[in-house]
Amino acid sequence: MTVFTRKLCSLSQSIAKYLLVLLFLMTSMQVSSATATFAMTFSSSMSVVEYYLLKRFPVPYALYFVAVATVAAFIGQHVVRKLIILLGRASLIIFILALTIFISAISLGGVGISNMIEKIEAHDYMGFENLCTYDA
Asked: What's the pTM?
């Protein structure tokens, strides 16, 4: 089983568990949002550690993205707080979280499909072996 497959299975299990907890315990929106944020932060942090140990990205590049993400998080938190006060509905947090996950999934799928199309057109090796010659 590849690392990607394991991570995909782990991610789907985590999302399913989170949704079940959210549905059955009916926690407040703020607690649900904080839990989801922690889970995503922990998951991405483990990926960063893995890529660092594998020497897959330069550290200055990662630090740049940390700085941009930190600034965006503070601005986003300020804007969402103002919107919640204006609208009087904390459920806005869950809708923003769901929209963010949806856009991320579509973006990652689109990038993967475009990379696959480029490799198919260039007749590049994509990691697949001939199943007829498989020796078990």
From this structure: 0.49
